Every structure is written in structure tokens, then in C-alpha cells.
Amino acid sequence: MDAKQANILYHDAAARSYDAKWSISFDQRCISYVRQRAERMLPRTHYARVLEIGCGTGFFILNLWQAGYVERAFACDISPGMLAACLESARLIGCDLDARAADAESLPYEDGSFDLVIGHAFLHHLPDPAAALREAHRVLARGGALLVAGEPTRKGDRMARVVGRLTSRAVRTAAEFAPKLRKPPPEGAASLTQDERILQDLEWDVDLHTFVPEETAAMARRAGFHSVRVETEELVSSVVGWAVRTLEAEVPPGALGARWGAFAYRTYLRLYDLDQRFLYRALPKDLFYNLLLYGEKA
Q1: How far apart are CA 75 and CA 86, in angstroms?
Q2: How far, in Å, CA of 157 to CA of 155, rounded?
Q3: What DSSP element (H or E) covers 292?
Q4: What are phi and psi of 84, to 5 degrees?
Q5: How far is CA 147 from CA 12, 38, 71, 94, in A?
Q6: I need a labelling partner for 173 at 20 to 30 A (CA). Which of 34, 80, 183, 238 fits?
Q7: CA 150-28-240 angle, 5° bins
Q8: Which CATH number fits domain 3-296: 3.40.50.150, 3.40.605.10, 2.40.40.10, 3.40.50.1970?
Q9: Residue 79 to residues 39, 189, 230: CA-CA distances in angstroms?
Q10: CA distances from 191 to 13, 248, 252 (A)
Q11: What is the per-residue pLDDT for 186?
Q12: Domain ranges in the chain?
């Protein structure tokens, strides 16, 4: 199975539970998250025609629309299941979204169609990220801009994986002394739904790349962009965040208590503030987990 087919199957299977798994919502919490990245990277606060490539369930484009940055919203994704979830969320918040099934490396739009092209955590799924950047450049109008966020850096991803493994071992050790932390053993493959089997089988086949900031900037310039800028975010907040996600995946539902979610989110916000206000000034960009890319079309 090639990478694109694996991504279609995986994300179709993930679509119904994706927002719950990643705490995606279309309320003030996620609007604030998206607005914060837009304020950091974009020179303007309003764009007429905005396309999101690899939109998933709509987290980035719909919350950016709610934040007032988007007049007319367009979205595409290679996964029909993700598109269906995105359109349903758009309907619920009242956004008249134009959505199409499309390959990021061959977009079904005319040259110069958009004032802003955005993407969130999609480049690392693509066999050819450079081709997607060239397509983004093609469909942008002159003077248009590109914003990509949520892409894993190479060092940040390695750190996250180490944290995940260590947290998993710690939880299993703790469960020897606190049985309520022990998840019931799986009932076997026969008990899994088709979607659960697909997610289990393809989990490690859909993340294809991590990124080095300087190399990513060079790739954007080769695609035709100028005024290219790469920033990163989340160091301590990422380490704690991945530990939290691993912990939540390892223990039975409800074992952490009703207040856990609010506590974890407040902790993330405080650590993110620490990262950006203090650590980002002193440490190399490539240590931070998430990469953000900005560029303009001349």
C-alpha cells in the first residue's frame, strides 16, 4: 500500500473520533489557540479568500474563520471521511465552507485563486512536501501568503517519542501498586471494529517526515516564496503534553478524575508561556516541537 492510500484509509477511520482524541473544539479555547498563532505569524488580520490544504476535521480553517481572519473559507483533504466531519462542524458554527476532496500535491484550483493558503499538521503526511508547497504557491494570488503550523521538528519529535516511552513504562510500573491505573487487557483482534483495526495497523505508516527549520525555509524558497520565516514553539509544554497524552492513553477512562482535563490544560498554558517568553530567547529553534512556516508570493 502506498503512503497516500494508507493516509486515506487511516484518516477515514479516524475521522469520527479524531476531535475527541485530540481535544479539538470550535469554542473559545481553540479559537484562542489559532488566533495566537495567526497573530504571531501573519502581517494582516483579514483575508478575503482562504484555502486550507489537508484540513482534517476543520480545526484550523474554521477557528481562524471564527477569529475573524477569513472572509470566504475553502478547504480540501485527501480523506473523504475527514471532509465530511469538517463540513458538519462548519454547518454547526454557521460557516459556508467550500470543501473538496483533493491531493495536496495536485490541487484542483486555478492559478491565483486565494489570498491566503494555510495548513496545520499536514505536510508530514505527504510523500512530497515540496510539491505541496509549489502547489500552494501556484494557487496564491500575487501578494498572497502561506501559513503552515503544527509540523513536527526532527529533534522535537525524537524527544516526544522518548518521553512517550518513559511515561508508558512509568504508568505500567505504577499500576503494579495502584491497580486502578491498569487498563483491562485487549480482548483480541476479533473484538476490534474495522476502523479500530485500520488505526492499529496503519498508525506508524502515515507520519512520513519531520522537519529541520533551516531546511524547511529553503524548501519554501525553492517553491517560489519570499519573505520566508520559520518559527518554532513548545519545548517544556511539549514534553509535559506528550507525557499527559501517553498517560491518558495508558489508564482506564475516568481513572484520572473529573478535574484532570482542566488541570492539564491550565498546566499546558503556563508551560507554553514559559517556553515562549523565556526559553525561546535562549535555546536553538530546532529543540522546540512544533514548526511554523510563513512565506509570500511576490
Answers
A1: 9
A2: 5
A3: strand 290-296
A4: -60, -45
A5: 25, 8, 16, 24
A6: 238
A7: 45
A8: 3.40.50.150
A9: 29, 25, 28
A10: 16, 22, 18
A11: 66
A12: 3-296
